[in-house]
Write a structure and sequence with these properties.
It contains four helices and two strands, in the order αβααβα. It has 97 residues and is mostly helical. The chain has a single domain (2-94), classed as Arc Repressor Mutant, subunit A, CATH 1.10.10.10. It has a two-stranded parallel ribbon with strand order 1-2. The longest helix is centred in the N-terminal third of the chain and has 13 residues, at 2-14. Keywords: DNA damage.
């Protein structure tokens, strides 16, 4: 079952369009049983050479999770046209779906 849910998470992640973001919780809700923490675990367990847009997944409220890749994530999102407000949050019109 976990392999099936992991595949669902990665399939959904691959569908996030450039310039848009979604949350761990949104992805979890689109699967057959994942939790937001499980979605985060899937991201951490991906091989380093994967091409999935991991950087398009953010915490609820439009903030970046506190992790070692947060600076890279911020830079990649800005390169796609995603903006951050003065509090470091992403406005809701950038959210997918």
């Amino acid at each position: 079952m976990k392999d099936e849910v992991k595949e669902q998470v990665t399939t959904i992640m691959a569908q996030i369009p450039p310039g848009r973001v979604t949350t761990y919780g949104t992805i979890a809700g689109m699967t057959d049983g994942a939790t937001p923490r499980y979605v985060a675990w899937v991201l951490r367990s991906l091989p380093s050479d994967h091409v999935l847009p991991w950087f398009r997944i953010v915490r609820a409220g439009g903030v970046l999770a506190d992790h070692s890749g947060a600076a890279v994530q911020h830079e990649r999102l800005r390169a796609e046209g995603v903006v951050f407000d003065e509090r470091g949050r992403i406005p809701t019109h950038f959210f997918w779906p």
